[in-house]
Amino acid sequence: MAVSRADGPAARRRRAGSWRGNQLPRVLHPVAWWIWALAIAVAASRTTNPLLLLLILAVLGLAVTMRRGDAPWARGYRFYLLMALTVIAIRIVFRVVFESGVTPGDHILFRLPQIPTPSWYAGVQIGGPVSLQAVLSAALDGGRLACLLCCIGAANTLANPKRALRVLPGALYELGVAVTVALSVAPQLVESVQRVRRARRLRGAGGRGLRALRAIAVPVLHDALERSLRLAAAMDSRGYGRTGNATATSRRLTAALLLTGLAGLCVGAYGLLGTSVPPALGIGGFTAGAASCIAGVILGGRRVSRSHYRPDPWRWPEWVVIGCGLASAAVLCLKAGYNPAALNPELYPLHWPSLPLIPTLAILAAALAAFVAPPPPAAASLDATAPQAQAGVQTFAGASR
Amino acid sequence: MIHFDKVGVTYDGSAVPVLRGVSLRIEEGELCLVIGPTGSGKSTLLAAINGLVPYFTGGTLTGRLVVNGRDTAHNRPRELADVVGVVGQDPLAGFVTDTVEEELAYTMEQLAIGPAAMRTRLEETLDLLGIADLRHRALRTLSGGQQQRVAIGAALTAHPPILVLDEPTSALDPASAEDVLAAIARLVHDLGVTVVLAEHRLERVLPYCDRIVYLAGDGTATHGRPADVLRRAEVCPPVVELGKLAGWDPLPLSVRDARRRAPQLRHQLPETPPRASRTDRSDPAGSPALKARGIVVRYGPLVAVRAVDLTLRRGECTALMGRNGSGKSSLLWALQGTGPRASGTVSAGATAADPAELPPARARSLVGLVPQAPADLLYLDTVQAELARADRDAHDARDFRAARDVRDVGANGQRSAGVIALAASARAILDTIAPGIPSDLHPRDLSAGQQLALVLAIQLTAAPAVILLDEPTRGLDYQAKAGLILALDQLAACGHAVVVATHDVEFATRACDRVVVLAEGEIVNDGPAATVLTASPTFAPQVAKILAPLPYLTVAQVAAGLDRVTAS
Predict the structure, then answer these.
(1) What is the reported pTM?
(2) Which residue range is the domain that position B137 belongs to?
(3) Complex confidence, ipTM
(4) Count of domains in chain B?
(5) Does B137 sit within 8 Å of A382, measured CB to CB?
(6) Across chain B, what does the average pLDDT equal?
């Protein structure tokens, strides 16, 4: 660092170049997007203020529309939005149907016919009066959940989930590969089922039911098994799982450390959350478990000799992205400098929620990520057009193969 | 480079060794071709080189196998990844990642090659195999030939001195296969990579190869220079067969070699050759079994088949040719009625019914289709159970069929009475087309050729007048192909209309009377096999290339021609 700070035109040019270089189209580090999205999720979980929740949705939407690529996983955001709407709807419907009691101040919207429930089921009441307050609180709770969903959706849309797995520490590499392979199996299975169903009709397959199920399941499972064996053979012959210079003892030690670490974490979590265990024990167990896990991961990582092709760089836009995400989470968690009641507006008496200034600014700050992150590379558009044009043929070729 | 010392392999639960006493030394920079009938242990031999046999497959390996100075007894496949690169038959099954670039980098990542070196090697490999424009593409969207080249590239980036390829072109059309083989030849000549290759289409690789290992089928292996080994081997490409027939020495390995020796032979042969395929042909103007008019198949914006008219006649075997993605499969599926059809009409059988409008069970008794993966139709535990199932299905449909047969016989005289399997059981049909398949075997344990025969028999049990086969020659060796040709001959002789979609020119020459060439969903050529196949150099069989301008297509024809000369 000291060397590169040396003043001189060349160094200045280099710095300027690297500054501009960051804004060349490239993929932002997937972990940065995940941290950003999770931080916003934390912020969203702190509030039921509808204005703030809408603002958060707007920020997510802005980032997604500005910075998503053209790859298949980047086209899923509207499914998350749909899912979010469904969540809100389900919550409201449940609240309306399973109404439990009305307080005197409630504004009654309408009454559903009441269905008498047996005495052993007395806790739940079906039907009855539906109040505006109940519907609103269900909608706000649902809205918060919907926001969390959209955060996960945004992370998945902005960052290739498989690339995110690549940053797992070396010791957990096998786990990452297992997940990656499992992810690619699902579409293959769907294709297999389509192909076999088609082929089955060639045999005059009318019947439904058990026989049809068997006629489809047997070839498909057989295919899947065969394919996974071939994949395993291919991975083996391409060097997957090379142990390098690890000895049997170091491997055993790694496993022992990880196991005890996980046990420690469990005990610690129980201690921290439960009330019957002294907090000291909880904190102690948690720290010891975490330390043991980290030691295991480091030790396991040391025996792994592997390199990464074109690792995603971590430059200043990554720092800014996670910074602005974490800032908004911190502001909403700390509740300092503004009236915390504004985050969760009262429903009694019913009033229009206010928009607290500081949380608003904090959430708007998170939107900065959309501008700071470099634009996604255009080369990905090749990916996008090709499968669309070929999709029909592919399925068909698959179907008839 | 690779040293087999009395290597024997026996799989668990099998009494007979797959390989025994194989001693063989493959030198650096050689292209070594492994040939032999299906089941003779080609894949076992190849997989033993990087230790997949026996570490991965199980079984016992006796003797010593040393690869680049490392004994496979002490090195697992993953430890040999820097020495041996492996490319399998189905590239898609071996891909670990999603995109071309990541796939190419995968082996290097496992070998912990530094990022800078990784980057340069990857760029070089992209250029070497001509796949630079595909670098960001998703692997699943590539064509078969492109996928196979990516798989080769993925094995190459680790710079292994040895490359092992198990039938890399078996799923490809001739042009893509040519690309892949050209890439392999380039590796051998420019980079000095030692290549061990198993390949059914000998004729394509023979000109490049330095050594042939011939597995006889009893576990033993003989090896030597190509011309020497092929003189004794039973499986030979047409160019070598012709050389044997004409008594040329040394045997020609390429069309060019043979062409230079051919003038005298051309002089000897009669101007008009004897019939190419079946000698006992049914009349060329057989009654139409299926009429298709204006068939259009489209998938969204993509038009796979563009207004195709096709009439299939009884007793005629038609080859449907064209590159991958030219609409062959789509056309077959549309004709059968199961596949999508945007417009057009199909009328099959004496009732001129459209199979697409009938329930599947009745459609298959008009038009039968054997798909590209025949095993998709098999789901029971034994061959016997599959055959019994087929018989029951046929029995269920019998009432309908009996009615139709009466009409058929009325309309076409005695010919349709000859259609195989009007009353025959599935077992009887199977024994006609491929005798001697044990009843108690699991269908998945059959060889590719036997599976095909089983499915063909099952489809024939429904007694369709039209039978369509989608790429049946894929993965078949010379013997299995010869068996299939016999079976198709019988079907045609019995009055079936047969259509075979195939890439295999030599097969089409021997099996088919008529060739239809598709390009971009349109019929670009349709006519007698002899005319169409000799019209263009790409589609011409080897014998035609050697003996042009004489219109000979097969070695059998040449033999018959020579007989006629000596007799007269």
Answers:
(1) 0.75
(2) 2-235
(3) 0.82
(4) 2
(5) yes
(6) 84
